[in-house]
Sequence to fold (305 residues):
Amino acid sequence: MPMSCARPWFVRAVCLGLMALVFLCGGCTRKYWREQADDLSYDIIKKKEVDPRWSLPRIDVMADPRSRFYDPYDPDFTPLPPDDPAAHDYMNWVYGMNGYRKWHEFGDLPAAENPDWLQPFGLSQEVVAANYSKSAVLPQIEKLTLEEAVELSWVHSRDYQTQVENIYLVALALTLQRFQFDLQFVGFGGRPSSEVTLEDVPGTGDSVNWNNTVGVRQLFPSGAQFIAELANNTLWLFSAGGKSDSTASVISYSLVQPLLANGGRRFVLEGLTQAERNMLYAVRDLARYRMGFFTTAVAGGGTAG
Fold:
């Protein structure tokens, strides 16, 4: 239909549909979910490390900007780092099928290391890139104080960074267990949705059907599950004789309590209880690892703990 002939109602309906799409998908970006995961996980770790016996000075999985493995690029649009040539073939062709075609969409990195990590020692980004493919050109430090040795150790230790990342993963797993008992916006048929259907029958009439579905779900410690859903359907009819509209709304709900052989909380809360315990153990383990790590940095030898 040419825009000059478009009916006003048609334009309004299209705009309404686009607004509904933006409303439903506005928060569904990679950055949104990444930041939400960070907020929930860091909050859990902070609450578990309140005891001074296992207090942790650093829980951020982002490495120190001075570190050789710090990533200075946008975490949501990171360029592709160097890859194993033989293994990279599977990124483009796997099991007789073409792979994803936009691996290089955000550019390519000359090296997997932080391009600026040698700048404090007077070496350029080109040296960092060259080190990745040949014998490393590294600065020589004549004298180090005890404080400087310890600081260099945790800033550039891949093993220490791995321990910090592991505790984040344990916290992330706990957020999933807690989420099972949160009030969730869903419906009997799946996720909340909003659909606009346009129908144009030349010479007869036109119609716009707007269908919305939203619901909530709650899991209780006893194993009981409550689900409620509201479905709304609005229909506009346009014909030569005039126009008409109708709206229908339906509320459905369900409450189910499984018997579970009189052991509801024992079984339903088992996963959450274990995840909470794992989080506490992970914080303690990292605190113990730090003591051994810094002892090693000073005295040498294998890492204790």
Remarks:
- The radius of gyration is 29 Å.
- The chain has a mean pLDDT of 84.
- The longest strand covers residues 205-219.
